[in-house]
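Reviewers of the previous submission asked for a worked example of the structure-prediction workflow described in the proposal, so we include one complete record here. The input consisted solely of the amino acid sequence. No template or homolog information was supplied to the procedure at any stage.
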Amino acid sequence: MSAVVPRGIRQGKLDRRNAVAARFLVSSTFTLADLIESGVHEHPGRVLLHYGARAWSCAEVNTEVNRWAHALHALGVRRGQVVALALENRPEFVFAWFALTKLGAVAAFLNTQIGGRALAHALEVTGAQRAIVGEECLPAFDTPEMTERIGNGMDASHFERGVIGR
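From that input alone, the workflow returned the following structure tokens.
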């Protein structure tokens, strides 16, 4: 049985959280991309991402995110475009998400456990024109429902997917 945290301690934590949250208003122009850049300048050596035995510092994450952003831009991803992400939990998910943010594109996170009509519907309602697909999620995209939906419900010439290996 876990111990009950005293009310004063709980309230103190909530007060600190609320003070931080109040700095980030909906109307603010401060974005995740700005947060990444400020983290690099303030704490370049601080570990930002752990995965297995590997750790990436703020500077290393930023370098990788910039590499991804340049590659996505070269592929035609632009500000305001919706790009679906179908990746399991791994560093490439973070790099792709942050890179899309830096480009001003919108990341549509897909449930990696769905396929068929549910996946086709998710892509349709998000308005995604492209998808970044992890190799582990690729079978869900190679189904008759997806082929039909992309061919009929979405203009296939405006839908692209990129495959990321494991």
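Residues 31-164 form a domain with the Rossmann fold fold (CATH 3.40.50.980). We consider this example representative of the routine output the project will generate in years two and three.
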